[in-house]
């Protein structure tokens, strides 16, 4: 994979750099760019990696990971385009930006792979979906999959499915946080101290996530195993159904997908 440069070492960029180091990559093989000198110094001191300019990163790296906010992309591409070697693999973590935008602005033939990660990358448990652009082949997808495997799981999808992915796993952690928040409120309603309610629910979430991950069973079967006849859980399920929670989730995720499509349109020709 050679030298990897992360352009924009904010939350996601730093999480990736940290994961790459934990995964055994040598600090000498990692570069990053940052706009603020104090942030650069902090990252250099913490990780022993080198902060460089965008132009230097383009000259020295074999693989560039773009991790700036979508609103900063135009100015970044303006700087990158004149100096990028066309064989350099460009990996975009920018939500909603199509590979076509990069292909239009970068030297002709530049391989681009689009990735939708999510914030559990910060704890090495990201779900990332990768999609190759027009000039990226299976070998580029393999390289990016290997790169991202050090910070979580990776799946390949056609780029047309990236809006659905954004709505499902990109925003997904927020839905779980929302659910946990509401369940803690329920504990408080039932008279439990907040700290106790929080511990009960967070550990239940961790345990349930582990069971989902490790068991071969479908979520329906795992739920049925906790739902005994005339028991407490089925009473709760009846209320969830009565309040349309399943329909609310379908509508919410569809709305997130629609917003992703809308945001993507802003970057069309
Ligand atoms: N956070 C998420 O949940 C999430 C999930 C999926 C995808 N993403 C994508 O990941 C990307 C990064 O998100 P983030 O949450 O990590 O944002 P962030 O914390 O704001 O990080 C972006 C970093 O890039 C720096 N930057 C901007 N333009 C630059 C330039 N020209 N040269 C060098 N550095 C530059 C920013 O500096 P300043 O501080 O000066 O702005 C900032 O430190 C976004 O495109 C987002 O869509 C994020």
Description:
By secondary structure, the chain is α/β, with parallel strands linked by helices. The chain has helices at 11-22, 37-47, 54-60, 73-80, 99-105, 138-149, 162-170, 172-189, 194-214, 219-224, 232-242, 245-265, and strands spanning 4-7, 30-33, 50-51, 63-66, 89-92, 112-116, 126-132, 152-156. Helix 6 links the parallel strand 7 (126-132) and strand 8 (152-156). It has an 8-stranded mixed β-sheet with strand order 3-2-1-4-5-6-7-8, sandwiched between helices. 53% of the residues lie in helices and 13% in strands. The longest helix has 21 residues, at 194-214. It has 12 helices and 8 strands. NADP nicotinamide-adenine-dinucleotide phosphate (NAP) is lined by residues 7-8, 10-13, 33-36, 54, 67-70, 72, 75-76, 93-95, 117-119, 170.
- Rg measurement, Å: 21 Å
Largest sheet: 8 strands, mixed
**Largest sheet: spatial strand order:** 3-2-1-4-5-6-7-8
Beta fraction: 5-15%
If you average the pLDDT, what whole number results?
Answer: 95
Q: Kindly state the percentage of residues in helix.
A: 40-55%
The unique ligands bound to this protein are: NADP nicotinamide-adenine-dinucleotide phosphate
Structural class: alpha/beta
Query: How many H/I helical runs?
Result: 12
Q: Could you tell me the number of beta strands? A: 8
Low-confidence stretches: none
Large-scale geometry: elongated
> H/E element string?
EHEHEHEHEHEEHEHHHHHH
Q: For the record, give the distance between the C-alpha atoms at the N and C termini, rounded to a whole number.
A: 32 Å
């Amino acid at each position: 994979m050679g030298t990897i440069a992360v352009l924009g070492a904010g939350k996601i960029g730093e999480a990736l750099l940290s994961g790459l180091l934990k995964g055994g990559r040598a600090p000498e093989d990692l570069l990053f760019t940052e706009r603020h000198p104090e942030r650069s110094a902090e990252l250099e001191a913490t990780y022993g990696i080198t902060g460089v300019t965008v132009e230097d990163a383009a000259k020295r790296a074999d693989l560039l990971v773009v991790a700036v906010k979508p609103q900063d992309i135009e100015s970044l591409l303006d700087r990158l385009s004149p100096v990028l070697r066309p064989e350099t693999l460009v990996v975009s973590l920018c939500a909603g930006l199509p590979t076509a935008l990069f292909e239009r602005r970068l030297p002709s033939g530049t391989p681009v792979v689009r990735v939708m990660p999510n914030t559990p990358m910060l704890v090495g448990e990201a779900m990332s979906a990768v999609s190759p652009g027009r000039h990226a082949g299976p070998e580029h997808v393999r390289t990016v999959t290997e790169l991202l495997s050090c910070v979580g799981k990776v799946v390949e999808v056609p780029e047309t499915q990236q809006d659905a992915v954004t709505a499902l796993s990109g925003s997904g952690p927020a839905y779980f946080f929302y659910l946990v928040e509401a369940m803690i409120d329920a504990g408080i309603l039932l008279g439990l101290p907040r700290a106790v309610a929080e511990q009960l629910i967070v550990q239940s979430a961790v345990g349930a996530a582990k069971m989902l991950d490790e068991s071969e069973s479908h979520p329906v079967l795992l739920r049925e195993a906790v739902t005994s006849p005339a028991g407490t859980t089925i009473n709760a399920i009846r209320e969830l159904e009565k309040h349309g929670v399943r329909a609310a989730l379908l509508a919410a995720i569809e709305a997130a997908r629609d917003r992703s499509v809308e945001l993507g349109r802003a970057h069309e020709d």
